Automatic annotation (TrEMBL):
Coiled coil: none annotated. Keywords: Cholesterol metabolism, Endoplasmic reticulum, Lipid metabolism, Lipid-binding, Membrane, Steroid metabolism, Sterol metabolism, Transmembrane, Transmembrane helix. It comes from Denticeps clupeoides (denticle herring). The keyword Lyase does not apply. This is Insulin-induced gene protein.
Length: 225
């Protein structure tokens, strides 16, 4: 009787993403912490790249902070990363649309590399004009989504969050928190939504992989038991 009860608990439907730790809250906190750390790291590296290229300008006192980044940038990016990374697998589950592409960490790392490459192109490559740069980055960002995501939920969330992040950036620039050296679209650079979109897709893939990895670990434990 006890074995039957245990088997029922193990086979109970818990969605496509199953926690390694029985306490779901603890599991979410662990994944959120990892995603926060990834967001902070990417924010420091990518923002340093932009500052070195003089794409963004912070006040003089801000430049004395770690890696020439405003103190609030890494925590904000880390928090957004945690939210997005946890939201993606949750949306997949709610829509009943599990990710169909083959998932593995090597694919996620390639996605991160492409994202960093897109940022590098926006800061280092000299294009004839901003329109050409924006169209190129838009094509690269959509190509990143097609290669590593291809889900409707991923595309929709990416576009929505990118537009929201662009609006927030406009408000920050308008209030003098920082500025772009050559703004061409409402105080900011026109290619910024493409960067945000690629970043959302990248963090979403990391969040999905973390959730899927936990699912595989639990399944292995079940087989071992």
């Amino acid at each position: 009787m006890e074995d039957t009860s245990m088997a029922t608990k193990l086979s109970a439907p818990r969605g496509p993403y199953i926690a390694v730790i029985t306490n779901r809250t603890t599991n979410v906190v662990i994944r959120g912490t990892m995603l926060f750390s990834v967001g902070v790291f990417l924010a420091l590296v990518l923002n340093l790249l932009q500052v070195q290229r003089n794409v963004t300008l912070f006040p003089p006192d801000v430049l004395s902070s770690v890696f020439s980044s405003a103190w609030w940038v890494p925590p904000c990016c880390g928090s957004a990363s945690a939210l997005i990374g946890l939201l993606y697998p949750c949306i997949d589950h709610c829509l009943g649309e599990p990710h169909k592409l083959k998932r593995e960490w090597s694919s996620v790392m390639r996605c991160v590399a492409v994202f960093v490459g897109i940022n590098h192109a926006s800061a280092k490559v000299d294009f004839a004009n901003n329109v050409q740069l924006s169209l190129t980055l838009a094509a690269l960002s959509i190509g990143l989504w097609w290669t590593f995501d291809r889900s409707r939920s991923g595309f929709g969330l990416g576009v929505g969050i990118a537009l929201l992040a662009t609006l927030v950036t406009q408000l920050l620039v308008y209030n003098g928190v920082f500025q772009y050296t050559s703004p061409d679209f409402l105080y900011i650079r026109s290619w910024l939504p493409c960067i945000f979109f690629a970043g959302v897709i990248t963090i979403g893939n990391i969040g999905r992989q973390l959730a899927l990895y936990e699912c595989k670990v639990v399944q292995e434990k079940i087989h071992q038991d």
